[in-house]
Specification:
With 291 residues, the chain is an all-alpha fold. It is 71% helix and 0% strand. It has eleven helices and no strands. Helix 1 packs antiparallel against helix 3. The mean pLDDT is 87.
């Protein structure tokens, strides 16, 4: 394959490779994610658990990481050629933008993945911050499903499982807009320099850099998402939507709170990007060779 051409990955290959890569990175870096979540918790880092029990909620992460990542990459790789062809048809091949293709494909992929990722995040966040009643995975799940207070999408059916779905999309779409065009472009430029397609290790490096940049820029959205998923502030007063969270943070805590957890988030996603994209490219190459 020419280094400057868009590659195509079969749906089943991207589905399996994405699922395996997602599980690999989420389990390997779970303690860092726990520390980031506790730093963003309204009750404070120490009250949320500090450095104790950093693996609380890992079963929730394990249950959601594989299907979430599989849905994302299956959708992303499938939509890339579709969007590229639409651009070629309506804008002409010369006017088509690979970056726009990657942005739109990644956004659609994130919307699909969040159907699995958000319930996982809600349950995991409760357990990571030692919320009342979150003593085990099954008890936490029952607790979240029982929260039928109308603050989440489909709460009459799913309870609080989809609390924060909207703000999660608002975080993930800008994240994808930054990360994936940058990731794909870095791979293309690296391939041009060396004259052949990037290796899994080189792709991992591109993923690490692009993920760290995207993580830093989207940390404020991540803070709002975490607060919404936890459901209430340190005094037990419930949040009512993203605007309420933002307003109360500005009034009660100050703007610096919007950067809470930025260091572990950037570190976690930079390392995670290296592991994730390296694992994805390795699994993809293996599956492509087998097929």
């Amino acid at each position: 394959m020419a280094p400057d051409k868009e590659r195509h990955t079969p749906f089943l290959t991207s589905l399996i490779a994405g699922g395996m890569a997602g599980t690999t990175v989420d389990l390997a870096l779970f303690p860092i994610d726990t520390l980031k979540t506790r730093l963003q918790s309204p009750q404070g880092f120490v009250a949320a658990g500090g450095f104790r029990g950093v693996y609380r909620g890992i079963m929730a992460a394990a249950a959601g990481s594989s299907p979430g990542a599989a849905l994302f990459f299956g959708t992303y790789e499938t939509m890339k050629p579709v969007i590229a062809n639409l651009q070629n048809t309506y804008r002409g091949e010369e006017a088509s933008s690979p970056a726009l293709t990657h942005m739109i494909a990644a956004s659609i992929g994130e919307a699909a993945a969040c159907l699995v990722r958000v319930p996982t995040e809600v349950v995991k966040s409760k357990m990571q911050t030692n919320a009342a009643g979150a003593s085990s995975l099954s008890e936490t799940f029952k607790l979240v499903v029982s929260e039928k207070d109308g603050r989440a999408f489909g709460s009459k059916i799913f309870g609080g499982l989809y609390r924060g779905y909207g703000i999660t999309l608002m975080r993930e779409v800008p994240f994808a807009f930054i990360q994936f065009p940058l990731y794909e472009r870095l791979k293309v430029e690296w391939a041009k320099v060396q004259g052949y397609e990037t290796s899994p290790l080189q792709a991992a490096t591109c993923g690490s850099f692009s993920g760290g940049v995207a993580a830093a820029f989207t940390t404020p959205l991540d803070v709002v998402k975490t607060r919404l998923m936890l459901g209430s502030d340190k005094n037990g007063v419930k949040y009512h939507g993203a605007n309420d969270v933002i307003g109360r943070i500005l009034k009660e805590e100050g703007t610096s709170v919007f950067l809470s957890g930025i260091q572990p988030r950037v570190m976690w996603i930079s390392i995670g990007g290296f592991v994730f994209f390296g694992a994805y490219e390795s699994y993809r190459s293996l599956l492509m060779n087998i097929s």
